[in-house]
Amino acid sequence: MIKNLKSLISLLVVVSLLSIQVNGYDYCDVLKKSLTFYKANRAGRLPDTDIPWRGDSVLDDAYPAGTKDANGDGNLSGGYFDAGDHVKFALPMSFSMTTLSWSFIQYESNIEKCNLTELFLQDIKWGTDWLIAAHVSDNEFVAQVGDGNIDHAYWGPPETMKVERPVFTISATAPGTEVAMEAASALSAASIIFKTRDPEYSATCLSHAKSLHKFGDTYRGVYSDSVTNAQAFYKSWSGYKDDIVWGSIWLYKATGDESYLTKAKADYASFGIGGMAQGNSFDWDLKAGGCCVLLAQITGESTYKNDAESFLNYWLPGGGVSYTPGGLAFIRQWGPARYAASSAFLAAVYGGDKYLDFTKSQINYILGDNPLSISYVVGFGDKHPINPHHRASHHSTTNDINNPVNNVYLLVGALVGGPGQDDSYVDDRTDYIKNEVATDYNAGFTGAICALIDPTTTPVPTETPTSTPTGTPTETPTSTPTSTPTSTPTSTPTETPTSTPTETPTSTPTETPTSTPTTAPKDSLPLYKNGLKSNFQDWSWGDHNLADTSKLYNDATSSISFTPQHWNAIFIGSSEAIDTTKYKSLSFYINGGETGSQKLSLAIVKNGAKLMSRDLSAILDKDLAANEWTLVTINFADYSATDKVDGFWLQDINGEAQSTVYLSDISVN
């Protein structure tokens, strides 16, 4: 009997090891290293020497000035340095903590198999402790510590850094909805994790989450308009609508309060979150894809499942996203590995063989299944980067990025930006596009690794508490602003990455020749004439203004101004509001502004997803004219539009900043 029992135990151990080590990769080892990276980026007074080359730093970070924590250090001394620099940006830090917590909630049993529960929780709590400290009052939150420009002029370890570190806050008079909502999400998710482990801490997290959610929703505004120092580093390109829905979903998961779910679903529909997700990434700026996946799991409703699958299908081979020859999904050149990893995480959470296959392919590419046979995780595998763009591990004592030649210390577990679109890569510290590291880079990657530890594990259901706790109900949201400020972004920095929404193709369409518009019926439905009409809504992302008066068509009193850049778009829509059996065409006037020749594409949208897009220059059969109003007319039939559609978007396809264009008199006929 004893002999048989020993044999059974041995068999179970072998099976467990086989599940953890797939394709030759020890995913437990990868997970441990990824979690260790967060320890290397800790700020403040360190409680251990797990990273022996790191010491106490920035102990005077505080707000209000001079405020101390229990250790006598500045109350904001903790938290995480953002990337290879030493600024604390609350938006990506919060996103990282939300994603790590979601990973833990979803794959706790896999994490336990690796004996990494304690390390995982330490990493989360180090971040959420700082978020709690940063919430200095109900309607005030610290969005950033350190001036990015000052910080980036210093190249050395944080322990010896002596530069001014200003504090930037959001408040009722300087709102920052994205940051407030992302912090609320992080603290809500953490409250779920600590509910049975540390009930008092869980309650503290949840209390701050509720307050931050109310603050962010009541005082709506784009955070980088209030914290202008962030614009060159973490500008909010997508706006705050996705963050509002994201925060409401996480509070519902943490509380079971139906009012949060009701709000999330209503805002999801009115903000066009499903459409916002399509052809995009899941990252610190844009949470729309995550909203789709979470609501699909929570409700099981077809609307969210369709949106989630449309988002994920874009990332599959042939779905629209570009691929390197070696097999990495490549949506942007700046840090492509983090985008592929984050989408791989969402694919695993959603589940299904084809999505799990995608997760495996992307993570295994990152770990070494690529043409160079290199691991893009520092310290993992036989061949990996040793010179990431990271001040502390380089450890220069001369304020020189090139001295010493190689990094003094190994930044174990850090995911670097990744290869070029041709699979090329050079381990060059000065190449921040391919070799920068960041807390948000590792967040989605960590989640995907958790899933692969045992792919047969059934993920923890995203069920919410059955009882609704007492407390203040969710506040009714204030009205959505009708326009977004039209300030032109600062130039892309030379060190810290700025991530932006991407172009949103779902497939490469067969071009349909421009044809003479079908004779229109007498009825006409206005979408925009001196403002939005017929209950159409502004679902745009990027810099635009629905009430611009600088360029007007004929007797109009206002127009839409739109500054194309970073694949942003004007998106005018209303769910299934345009019946293409009645209305045959879309028309509007557009002005090319100061330069003309902007690179734009026009897409028709149905059920939140793009049917087809065509270059505007192909539609016009010429470049867009400068300072001149041009009529654009397209037939719905040329876009394979049948039955009812939502609307259209006009999107930047250049990537770089272009001059402002203007739209007027939009209608379907």
From TrEMBL:
The active site is at D427, E436. GO terms for molecular function: cellulase activity. It catalyses: Endohydrolysis of (1->4)-beta-D-glucosidic linkages in cellulose, lichenin and cereal beta-D-glucans. Gene3D superfamilies: 1.50.10.10, Galactose-binding lectin (2.60.120.430). Residues 1-24 form the signal peptide. Its EC number is 3.2.1.4. Residues 455-519 have a biased composition (Low complexity). The keyword Signal applies. Residues 27-448 form the Glycoside hydrolase family domain. One of its GO terms (biological process) is cellulose catabolic process. Keywords: Carbohydrate metabolism, Cellulose degradation, Glycosidase, Hydrolase, Polysaccharide degradation, Signal. PANTHER family: ENDO-1,4-BETA-GLUCANASE. This is Endoglucanase.
